[in-house]
Predict the structure.
Amino acid sequence: MNYDNPRLIIDSSNPPEPDRITWRSPSNIAIIKYWGKYGDQLPRNPSLSLTLASSLTDMALEYSLKETPDNTINLDFYFHEEANDAFKTKIVAFLEKMTPAFPFLRQLDLTIHSGNSFPHSAGIASSASAMSALALCLCSLEDKLFGTLKDGDAFDQKASYVARLASGSACRSIFPYAAVWGETSSVPGSSNEYAVTAEDFLHPVFKNYHNDILIVSSDEKSVSSSAGHALMEGNPYADARYAEARRNFDDLLLALKKGDLEAFGAIAEKEALSLHALMTASVPSYTLMQPGSLAIIEKIRAYRKDTGHPVCFTLDAGPNIHLLYPEDIIAEVRGFIEEELLEHCEDRHMQQDWVGEGPEEL
Ligand code: DP6
């Protein structure tokens, strides 16, 4: 697949009015994890995520035709209204990489204002919400200038493709409720290059599932996800992991269809603990879980055994615990969190989240 298109060039004798495009895009939580990649951001195994509702990035992209043409990407970048050079450098590098697909970017003065619904230091991964928001802004801009992405499916596919190139997991945030990224014969139309909707696989119980994020630590990760993916290349368990991910993926599809909460929980926890075991088994080894993460895991297991309530957990590449549970036990579970889990969280901090309807243009 190739989105390179040298014809997407603005006719400077007919310049567009300066304008702005704004998208609100969510984070997502993987139940089957993407961990290990090759080539240009291609996944070693299919992953499946739930799209979240309250962990969001709002991004506004302003554009106007450059008065004096040159070949650079000219971007001003503001995060929560403050100029941010570190983010700007990363985004300029990404936009440079994307110019074969969006050659008109070099013709424009660009300004981005971005902000998250959660504190930057909350320890919640923001690359999925931010990079999906950026991809959506770029695709909307293309469509506005050239009318090339009128078809909703074509728009989503390109937005997901572009988001993937910025950060793998971001490609799954484009879709409401749930998404699959990575080629698998179990999902017709699935691809390594973009995610597809997984809404049709969901029993209704999952459409408003809760995912409260227990913030054990908001410190910067000691090993980035990119470095973690790279370490999979020398990991002695890598091949076994990719085969296991595929089995877990197929089992999860069945559980999602049936609304089998017990099977869902067993698979979610197996995936999360395998992810962290792979980090432990990497060379050099590293650990992102903290004592508080393990204390919370033990308490969730005990609570489930004592009450029979279908609560389960997952983690992404960090110490924070995502507590997953169905809507009908929210009152009991929130009481359990308050009484037993918040004491293990930094400043008793939790971000309440749940499955959501995907990005929206504002
Ligand atoms: C553990 O998408 O952050 O959250 O593609 O290098 O940007 P890059 O990595 P990233 O990796 C996410 C890994 C994960 C699992 C998942 O979301 O599937």
